[in-house]
Protein: tRNA 2-selenouridine synthase AAA domain-containing protein
Amino acid sequence: MIGGYKALRNFLFETTRAAVDECDFVLVGGLTGCGKTEVIAALDNSLDLEGHANHRGSSFGRRATPQPAQIDFENRLAIDILKKRHRGVGQFVLEDEGRIVGSCSLPLELYQGMQGYPLVWLEDAFEQRVERILRDYVIDLRSEFERVVGVEEGFAAFSAYLQKSLAGIVKRLGGERYQRLAAILVQALEEQGRDGSVDTHRGWIEGLLKEYYDPMYAFQRQSKEDRVEFRGNQAEVIGYLRQRQALRPS
Structure:
């Protein structure tokens, strides 16, 4: 490319900016563990912000492998947009995210647009949300750490990661609540390390959802209520978003 890397960077920057100006966007929101990532994965017009950032977006969102540098995150996102627009995509689906996904910042123009985009609200039963978090953040994440650094060191790193993540929100939890949930987590990790059992992990997951994440999301949702255009379970939301894309004028 004439102009080299700087020209390429400018081209990719303009790709994202142009999409924000020219395309339609809709956000997928919902409580923690409701399966928003699964909805994003099921759609051919989605932009997987968490995938590009290699981070799940929450206090517990770190993966076993590092996040990309900011410039690489922006490039990945722009290339994804470019490929999809080349296929004729003019309406994009995003997960409703904050400005920061781990250590990666969303492009400012995109984030500003997200404050006004229509919202589809994904719903799921509390029990199913607990099981999904157990699978993603306990069972699968342990395996991920063990693949990266080996079985023994992997479990130690996984255990330290969960405890550090919980400690990272101690001020928001409050001392008594943190101590109670941390004790359950320590017991759960001891049992998991000893015999592979994950049952006790449900205790701290349920506590975090009921006492921290759900009240926080309920408060945040109040300011977005007027933008919610559809509510439903996973199958209903996927169906609605596919229909929404099909009805968009070409």
